Each structure stands twice: as structure tokens, then as C-alpha cells.
Amino acid sequence: MYISLTGLKPKGFFAYIRFWVLAIPAFRQAQTATGNLHCDVKKMHEYQCTITAWESRELMLAYLRSGAHLKAMKAFKQIATGPTYGYESDTIPSWEEAYSLLKEKGKMH
Predict the structure, then answer these.
(1) Residue 22 confidence (pLDDT)
(2) Percentage of residues in the chain with pLDDT exceeding 90?
(3) Neighbours of 65 (CB within 10 A)
(4) What CATH architecture does domain 2-108 belong to?
(5) Are 47 and 36 in contact (CB under 8 A)?
(6) Range 22-26 contact pairs with CB under 8 angstroms and sequence separation of 24 or more
(7) Residue 75's pLDDT is what?
(8) pLDDT digits (tens, 9 = 90+) for 36-53
(9) SS3 content of the chain, % helix, strand, coil (to 5)
(10) CA 76, 98, 53, 24 torsion: positive or negative?
(11) What's the rounded Cα separation, in Å, for the pair 77 and 80?
(12) Which of helix, strand or coil describes residue 81?
């Protein structure tokens, strides 16, 4: 299965509002997306984090490039910063493992 981790921090008050206006529909889209096996969100330290698990990387990319998530990605540079990390695994990481992976291996955006 393909695990996708994100840790995003809004850039100020107005960006925070816009972040949530875009993030909520994108998360709802993930919950019902083809191939999604697990979808969770939690605030970890200063970041709004997600853990999603997918049947395959290809199905995750199909979600990433469509609908509400695509709209959120187009606004990303104006509203947030933070790391993302994806990898193949047989298990879904705990929140502590996910945050550690984001900090150690995540690509900053």
C-alpha cells in the first residue's frame, strides 16, 4: 500500500481561513476517493497533518490531481508551507512515526 503524509502550516490569519476553506473539501474527497484505505487528520505541534493510505501510488496520484485537492494545491504556495512524504508500506504509521518521518524525510514546500 502507498502511504502519503503531509504536515502543513498556514501562513498567517487570512491564509489560515483560506487553508480550511480548501482543506475540508479536499479531505472529504480523500475519504471517498477510489483506492483510499485510510484517511486521518491531526494537529501535530505547529502542523496540520494527514495520514492517508492507498491501494497504490497511481490511485493516490489520481486523487491528488483532481477535484477539491487540485484546487487546494493550486493555492498552496499562497496559504501554507510544510513537508510531504510518500512511501510503500505494509502498515499505517502511528501519529508519532508519521510526524518523525515528515521531519526526517519530508520534502518542504
Answers:
(1) 96
(2) 99
(3) 10
(4) 2-Layer Sandwich (3.30)
(5) no
(6) 22/68, 22/71, 22/72, 22/75, 22/79, 23/48, 23/72, 25/67, 25/68, 25/71, 25/72, 26/67, 26/68, 26/69, 26/71, 26/72
(7) 94
(8) 999 999 999 999 999 999
(9) 50, 35, 20
(10) negative
(11) 6
(12) strand
Query: Is the Cβ–Cβ distance between 19 and 10 less than 8 Å?
Result: yes
- Take residue 56 and report the three cell numbers written for it: 497504490
CB 4 within 8 A of CB 55: no
Q: Residue 101 corresponds to which cell in the numbers above?
A: 518521518
Q: Enumerate the β-bridge partners of residue 8.
A: 48
Rounded to whole angstroms, the Cα distance separating 106 from 83 reads 5
Report pLDDT digits (tens) over 54-84.
999 999 999 999 999 999 999 999 999 999 9
Say whether pTM exceeds 0.70: yes
Where in the chain are the domains? 2-108
Cell of 7: 504536515
